[in-house]
Amino acid sequence: MKSNDQIKSKIPVGILGATGSVGQKFIELLAEHPWFEIAAVAASDRSAGKAYRDAAHWFMSKPLPSRIADMTVKACEPDLPCRIVFSGLDASVAGEIETNFAKAGYIVISNSRNHRSDPDVPILVPEVNADHLEIVKTQQNGQGAIITNPNCAATGLVVALKPLLDKFGLSKVNVVTMQAISGAGYPGVASLDIIDNVVPFIGGEEGKLESEPQKILGNYCDGRIEPAQFKVSASCNRVAVTDGHMECVSVKLARKPSANKIITEWKEFRSEPQRLKLPSAPANPLCYFEENNYPQPKLHRLLGDGMTVAIGRLRECPILDYKFVLLSHNTIRGAAGGAILNAELFVAKGGLETRK
Ligand SMILES: NC(=O)c1ccc[n+]([C@@H]2O[C@H](COP(=O)([O-])OP(=O)(O)OC[C@H]3O[C@@H](n4cnc5c(N)ncnc54)[C@H](OP(=O)(O)O)[C@@H]3O)[C@@H](O)[C@H]2O)c1
User: Fold this and answer.
1) Whose CA is nearest to atom 12 of ligand 1?
2) What global pTM score does this model have?
3) Statement: residue 3 has pLDDT above 80
4) Positions marked catalytic
5) Could you tell me the residue range of the domain that residue 350 belongs to?
6) What separation in angstroms does the CA of 296 have from each of 65, 245, 251, 292, 326?
């Protein structure tokens, strides 16, 4: 197990899809990272060969680091000067490009949906299923590997459900989302479609939210992930919020505890990233608010540097057992920050050494 002190020199990493919404968030979060250093940025042929400052329309709140602005954008070919690549690629191209990189020996840490349902690929959320990382050993990618993170709305949901499943059992989940505009990438949803509006459909989103949580919360045993046996019904909406997905969740538990017992489990929840003191791990993966009008995207999306999932309004549900509201930052916890935490876990567990 590697600790912060044992990472002597920074590990070079590349970013695929570096010009997009998630790619820019990777650059922002990796700029000051204690373990990783950006060695390459890559995107489509439209951007390849240009200086990054000319290829990307930078819209992060922190200034674009000059070292990155001067970098020449590469094509997404597996000849980048690094072992780890973070992928923020458009799903229409991510599948094949990520496979090519893994087969060439790269460790691909992906945000895209393409490989999430592959039986030998983990959908990793280190607070929830750090043990699923073992399954990469069964991948037929030589020294390479593919590790994915969940759909951005599934991430907050599984962190909130983990203590409930472990302590009380879980049989049914109903979730209604209010998802931020940045979840659609850049330029995303046309302003005339979203200002003064709610769009009650996000292509493909409900299917992901109804299937990914069972794999993520499943048991890893004998080289296989056995999905958890609960059902999810999801309704997904796009709302006029820039960052931060809100979700109204109702749950049916196997054993119904008091509301106070649930809140205590959420407040006390800590896991592997906190024990390992991974650089991107929030001190508290979950934060429960007693105020009945919290959490709110504008106020709480940056809790724990965007890595803490905020929860509030736990109350009895007349149809299932309990209902509550959660909020999680979609481009940090649900995308770039979550992927960086995955890479930290992989490195801390000695993954780079075992896949030399
Ligand atoms: N936004 C979120 O909150 C979020 C959360 C979780 C997961 N995701 C997933 O993360 C991925 C990226 O999302 P995004 O929102 O960042 O999308 P985006 O803003 O549209 O960015 C897409 C990136 O893919 C690159 N690309 C497009 N076609 C390419 C090609 N043929 N070859 C190589 N690169 C190509 C683009 O490069 P050019 O600039 O050169 O075109 C750009 O860098 C998607 O799979 C998405 O589902 C997004």
Assistant:
1) 88
2) 0.97
3) no
4) 152, 245
5) 4-151+336-354
6) 30, 10, 21, 11, 9
